Amino acid sequence: MEFGTVSRRQARRYLAARRAGGFRLLHDLGGAFYAVGATSWYRLRATAAPVPTEAHVLHAALRAYGVTDSFTNSGGGVHYVVVPLGPVPAEPLDSCHITIAAGEHTQRHPQDHEEAFTAWLCDDAGNPVGGPLYLGVSTDCAMDAALCAKAVAGWLARH
Asked: Which residue of 32, 90, 99, 151 has the smallest Cβ count within 10 Å?
């Protein structure tokens, strides 16, 4: 038997495998949950702190490059980071802004960063204007976030 603690990503795999009959989920009287397979036994535990996401890494990189106004938004199953241009209006998406996403997500764990960030300028209707301001190539989340933040800060300084 294997014993150990697994990541949130692996726990999700166990839950998916459970639906297919590969694992059983059990819990004890103390409230601990376990994923039990034919040859493995894993304790699943909730983390007290929120799990960092790609967006957290990107916000930190933006702040490091002096971009202090940014927020995470979602719509239609897409998660992205928004950098408003100028003073933040009551509805930031109703003004020109920069949108940054990694595919359709920024909510994955940084080690699951499989698609590089892309940043583009959007008009007040949310439509992209021109080509990307940043088109990443790295799947290392910290490096990609730093390069993206540098490109966004540089663009903001020039405009």
From this structure: 90
Report the C-alpha gap between 116 and 135 in whole angstroms: 7
- Give the per-residue SS3 of the chain: CEEEECCHHHHHHHHHHHHCCCCEEEECCCCCEEEECCCEEEEECCCCCCCCCHHHHHHHHHHHCCCCCCEEEEECCEEEEEEECCCCCCCHHHCCEEEEEECCECCCCHHHCCCCCEEEEECCCCCECCCCCEECCCCCHHHHHHHHHHHHHHHHHHC
| pLDDT tens-digit map of 93-131 | 667 899 999 988 888 888 889 999 999 999 988 889 999
First to last CA, the chain: 60
d(CA 47, CA 104): 25
* pTM attached to this predicted model: 0.67
